[in-house]
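Fold this sequence, please.
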Amino acid sequence: MPKSKNKALGILALANVEAYQEKAGEEYMNPAQENHFKKILDAWRVQLREEVDRTVTHMQDEAANFPDPVDRAAQEEEFSLELRTRDRERKLIKKIEKTLQLIEDEDFGFCNSCGIEIGIRRLEARPTADLCIECKTLSEIKERQMAG
């Protein structure tokens, strides 16, 4: 199964929703579609916040002052990895909240670069996407060229 399809299934399962079934002649980003994505984004945000709470509890419960420097270093490395992950998730929560605001402003689902529809399937795989696949691909090519 392609990576994006796995990711979409994971996000949809998290929100406990089925993939959106478009109806013939249905307007893009109608209220039903907007509600579909609100539900996905809300569930994702709740899950991320729960992870943050679990990390805080885990770090408080597991914090110990090991006399052995190797044990202490291992614990510090574990905590450092957890904190980096939570920092990425904190940034993702902000992006989710920005996306929820776009839904409220009825400005969700359209490419920030060219203005075309991003597409239901792409948004289910990456609900915070703000570029269509073509513009995202171009952006990634430019990034690689600048880095290389």
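The helical segments are 3-15, 31-62, 69-104, 120-125, 133-147. The chain has one domain: 3-13+26-147.
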